[in-house]
Amino acid sequence: MEYNVHTLSNGIRLLHVPSTSTISHACIIINTGSRDEDEKQMGLAHFIEHLIFKRTEKRNTNQILTRLESVGADLNAYTTKEYTCIHASFLQPYLDRTLDLFNDIVFHSLFPEDEMEKEKGVILDEITSYLDQPEEAINDDFEDQLFAGHSFGRNILGTPETVNALTQENILQFIKDNYKTDQIVVAVLGNYPLNKLVKVGTKYFEPVPANLSVKKRIAPVQNLPQNIVVNKQIMQAHCMMGVQAYSLHHPYKAGLLLLNNMLGGTGMSSILNLQLREKYGIAYTIESNYSPLSDTGIFALYFGTDKEKVDKAISLIFKEFKKIRSNPLTEIQLQKAKNKFIGQIALGEENRIGLIISMAKSLIDYHKIDDLETVFNKIRAVSVTDMANISNEILDENNLSSLTFFPTEN
Predict the structure, then answer these.
(1) CATH 3.30.830.10 spans which residues of the chain?
(2) What is the DSSP letter of 146?
(3) CB 157 within 8 Å of CB 126
(4) What does the pLDDT read at residue 216?
(5) The CATH number of 227-407 is which of 3.40.190.10, 3.60.20.30, 3.30.830.10, 3.40.50.2300?
(6) What is the pLDDT of residues 94-121, one digit of tens each?
(7) Is the pTM of this model over 0.90?
(8) Is the sign of the CA dihedral 264, 270, 275, 279 positive or negative?
């Protein structure tokens, strides 16, 4: 896909992706997330993401929330372990309005004490709601187990204690320390010439003071595998297993993405879904996921089932792992897996907002954006030997950690 990058004097990059649609999509990605928090300030990055919608130097909450919605646009945001993202979808005439709002909420928010107290209550409710969903809570608890002692393991939402303790001073210091202007990308996919985006983008983001100091992050160490069972008053057992995996820059990244898709990725024909759900009727949900990060990665799978079926489910999963490790894929099997994965990626390109966010992240992570054919060629280049090496490393049950939420009698 065609794209252009224009770098402002303060390091902020403008990403321009032309489109013929009347609907435009934009995002501002900041390369900071929960991994950059102090342990005593868990939840701070997410807290800031909430508060930027509350009050700025020139707008109150209502004016912020209606600025785009009043013209039928959609505005939202999210925080991950490594990124903060604000994104919007809007009709073609409203580019100026959108980038004006992005600038206002990211760089001119006031973080008033009264709004902070109200939003703490909202986040505490969010934490409580999350804990009431074991299929969600187990994911965070498992990452805490997998990355014990490292910020990657901490819950993005924080804890009631850490959220209640957050101050305006914490917020301003975190922004100063982590909102590096050369680690910010403003991306727009829409029916605009490049000079239009550069003009509007320069108008709103060139005045932002440069913050170019080096960002310091500590990579996690590989912890020894642990198998933990937690008894809970729930109806169904929930289980996760996995291991620290390859980073964004590892040569086996494409291969593990492919292996993950085969095992428990998108669609009903994944290996684990066919075995556990379709053949044995053990689990309604069985899925795997590989998330490559800047200096590590996470490979994990999740299933939920009746407590009497947990051992059988784990046995079947390990059986499939052993089969994959003992019997390398044939060229025909690998080609089928590649065709399926490539097709899914191509269909995913239809999600325009997801596409522009992905391209902006790629610019931050790699300082370039691969076109679709380059992505496909990386998948096509994965060999049978690559898949055997990846399987033997990632699917070795001796290296896997697990966490099970096990139902107890009330």
Answers:
(1) 4-205, 227-407
(2) H
(3) yes
(4) 85
(5) 3.30.830.10
(6) 999 999 999 999 999 999 999 999 999 9
(7) yes
(8) positive
